[in-house]
Amino acid sequence: MTRATRRWRGAGYVLPLVVFLTALFLVPLVQLLRLSFNPVDAYNAALPGFTLSHYGRVLTEPYFYGALLHTLLTAVLVAVLCVLLAYPAAYLLAGRRPGTLRTVLFVIVISPLLTSVVVRTYGWVVLLSGNGVVNRVLVGSGLIDQPAQLLTSYPAVVVSVTHVLLPFAIIPLTTALGGLDHNLHRASQTLGAGPVRTFLRVTVPLSLPGVVTGALIVFALAMGIYITPLLVGGVTEPLAGIRVYDQVTTVFDYPVAAALSFALLVITLLSTTLLGGAFRIWERRLYG
Amino acid sequence: MSGAGHVEIDDLTAGYDGARILDLDHLSIHRGEFLSILGPSGCGKTTLLNCVAGFVEPTGGRIVIDGDDVTALPPYRRGLGLVFQNYALFPHMTVADNVAYGLKVRRLGKAEVAERVGEALRLVNLEDFAGRRPRQLSGGQQQRVAIARALAIRPAVLLLDEPLSNLDAKLRREMRVELRTIQRRIGTTMVFVTHDQEEALSLSDRVAVMNAGRIEQLGTPDEVYRRPATRFVAQFIGAANVLEGTVTAAGLLDAGGILVGAGTLRPGSRAVVAIRPERIRLDDAAAPAADGTGAGGTVGYRAFAGDAWHVEVHTASGRTITVQVADTGGGVADPPGAGTAVTLRWDPSDVIILDRDARDPDGDRGGDPAQAAHRAADRDPDGGGP
Amino acid sequence: MAKVLRYDRGIRLLGGLLACGVFLFLLAPLAVLVISSFSPTTSMAFPPSGASLRWYGEVLSSPDWLVSFQLSGLLVLYVVPTTVVIGTLAAYGLTQGDFPGRKLIQALALSPLMVPEIITALGLLYYFHGVGLINTIPGLWLAHSLVALPFVVRAVMVSAAGLDPTPERAATSLGASRLRVFLTVTLPLLRPGIIAGAVLAAVTSLGEVAVSALVAGANTTTVPLRIFSAVQFQLDPSMAVVSTLLMTASVVVMVVADRFARISEAL
Fold first, then answer.
1. Is residue A12 part of a domain?
2. Domain count, chain A
3. Is A163 in contact with C86 (Cβ distance < 8 A)?
4. How do residues C105-121 score in pLDDT, each as one tens digit?
5. Hey, is the C-beta of A64 within 8 angstroms of any chain C C-beta?
6. Does the beta carbon of C232 lie under 8 angstroms from any beta carbon of chain A?
7. A186–B79: do the CB atoms touch at under 8 Å?
8. Is A252 domain-assigned?
């Protein structure tokens, strides 16, 4: 085998994937990008040419840029919540040896992934509706006098989106915690550190790669999620994904929808790249 | 039971019901000694170490350190140092922070922490590496950091769990010397768990040979080598030839045609003896034996191992005896090749009597019938019994 | 190993309780649906006033739902082979191969996971408009395959990364052709990852809404899409029934597949 062919070893295997993703992912994205610069006629139909007016609208109209800001803050909030909730679950899961209990716990963790996002969200709709469980408990315990409007509220959106994305935080965190050398905990303990100190000084710092991975995945997914907030929060919830959906399905303004999408994509990629890069630099300095 | 020893371990058992991993009568560790716990994998040596360190809850018995019963104490209240086989250095901390970890836990002042970190790193000759990360160090350097980290807290006892087995052969020998030097200098009691007999013999003040959860023999390195107490010890350390047979009227042990003179043996009784491979001579087949001991055989195999020849001799009765012939350099003493008939000879003083009367449980040693049964059970198929 | 000392029992208990809370949080909305599906009345009030299979009967005799079930099933049959073939080949090439741009293609293969779903959906919507695939089964097949493909690639890559090259070399030294080696040695070794990937692809296709909501139409309403539109207008236990059936199917597939492959490790 010559050096030249060796340099291309295995390239044939990825060819179908490259063709498939080019045709169904890259080309549509490029078309969408071009569309976002196309001028439109009175009926919002795209015309040939070049304009920045759609991006101008996205960046100047509060209806759009407010939604982008709100989406960013929501995604950060959801990522933080997911990491906090994922930690105890992942810790428990990682500490279990393979067996029936671990399998059951694992199925619970990924059960949201196994069920359609509408099913999960529908569960929250049922829980949070006027005569749902949460309201009954709140009224029954005397905390509130009459059922509260939970369903189209912001907390409901945050809770349901957190629920939907939680597995994406638990899985990398479980991997990170499971990969820790158990002897490090033992070493810490023989040196006199109790369980709490060992957890804070050894377990937490060493699980940070898993935390960051999970947080970044959740953040990226939360930036673009729209089905869940649409069902729980309604079409008026000021999230970028819902605004895009609304522009497409009711206003039929594709170019603005495309511009808003790309603004969202740029913010998402920029944030994840910056955060990921910063973490990698920090990690390199920490581990040498 | 417990005397003035530094660490006293009594009736320690561990394991699940039925399957006992550890079943220790008594072990007393002296202050300032270097004690090796030597045994094959699965003999319970690591469980013993984990019981002392506090990571395994014993099912019975107690561990007393300096007069305090620590059996129920968590590992972080025992004040012991532990060095791990894979070093277990904290990858996210510098060498200095690793060593300082246990000191900060003890809330020592900044100056004292710095002083003791420097002192510990000087001890292992790594003072120039304080700012490095573990990942930037070689295996030997990492192991030295691990030792410094464990010693910085001035532990009552330093436990070492196969600390050298991840190092290559040359480094292992160097670390052995260094470890012994450190121990002599600071005088900390060290308990060293290993499966490597050479390591245990060369490092230790005393060696505890473990098998199947029990201590088979506890003694100085030369004691366990020269006077193994059991068949297991004789075979595990130095791979002795173990011969078992009936004592003839002339007082010689007849192990399937191999006659062994071993001092005073009661005619008609059964006995077990061991002879080290390097204590056996190969003579011409024709040479007659003065006292009638020895055995005739044929060389089945010989191999040159640098400092010595390893020879296997098949006797007429089908036994294989291993012989080690030191190399003289000139080739004068080279053993004959395969197929040559030879006579095996040894001095009666080199014969180790393992069991004077195998059928009599009230013999001069090994009064415990369970132990006798146990000894019979570990007769291994290849190197062992006749 | 003997028992580990229980010195930190309290802390463990606290951690365990927190973890149980999280598991409860994960399960609660799903459990509510399962229970509601047995409601005897049209009310979605919880807990239901009794237990009956009334809504199961209604759903299973409704032609609309049955058409949707058929469509969703059909799509799984299309999507799983498509993604498994493309994904397995790619995962093998990406882990065992060595060619320029390998890292870039790996990033491309996993990027549909990281791009906000609304963008993928909008991109396909506009693209399919141009090529006439809106409201068609091939359109949904391609869309679902796109969404499921990264999961398959990732699952198979886990298996392929741990692949021992010596069996392949042994087979080659025994005279097997490259194709034969791949079919008789490599593929069986990749089996756990492939099974995990197939399960994930099936489950993804069964539940896909984000992209389908934009590229499907009146003739191509999958099960989750029908739930999606129904939830927006009415709440009755029939959707709980459908959701329960959908969940049961997924969990059964998952548990059965876990017997053959440790999907737990492939995610």
1. no
2. 1
3. no
4. 999 998 888 788 899 99
5. no
6. yes
7. no
8. yes
Within 8 A of B149 by CB-CB distance, chain A residues are: 187, 191
B18 touches chain C (CB under 8 A): no
Question: Cβ separation of B149 and A191 shorter than 8 Å?
Answer: yes
Predicted confidence at residue B95, as pLDDT, reads 94
Q: What is the pLDDT of residues C15-44, one digit of tens each?
A: 889 999 999 999 888 888 888 888 887 776
Distance (Å, rounded) from C-alpha C44 to C-alpha C37? 9
For residue A158, tell me if it sits in a domain: yes
As a CATH number, domain B7-226 is 3.40.50.300
d(CA A83, CA A207): 11
C119: nearest CB among A113, A171, A224: A224
What is the distance between the alpha carbons of residues B285 and B283, in angstroms, rounded to a whole number? 6
3-state secondary structure of B282: strand
pLDDT of residue C169: 84
Residues of B in contact with A205 (CB under 8 A): 92
Q: Do C5 and B16 touch (CB under 8 A)?
A: no
The residue that leads in pLDDT, A285 or B151, is B151
C46-86 pLDDT, tens per residue? 677 778 888 898 888 888 889 999 999 999 999 999 999 99
Does A212 reside within a domain? yes
In contact, C183 and C81? CB cutoff 8 Å? no
| Per-run averaged pLDDT (10 residues), chain B, 386 residues | 70 80 90 93 89 89 91 88 91 92 91 93 91 90 93 92 87 88 91 91 93 92 90 88 83 78 76 88 70 79 86 86 84 80 84 71 40 39 35
Contact of B184 with chain A, judged by CB distance below 8 Å, is answered with: no
Of A85, A125, A261, the CB nearest to C122: A261
Q: Which domain holds residue A79?
A: 64-287
Tell me the HSE value of B227 on the side-chain side, using a 13 A CA sphere: 6
Provide the shortest C-alpha distance from residue C116 to chain A (in Å). 4
Looking at domain C54-266, its CATH class is: mainly alpha
Q: Torsion over CA of C63, C65, C69 and C70, rounded to 10 degrees?
A: 20
- The matching CATH number, chosen from 2.40.50.140, 1.10.3210.10, 3.40.630.10, 3.40.50.1240, for B234-377 is 2.40.50.140
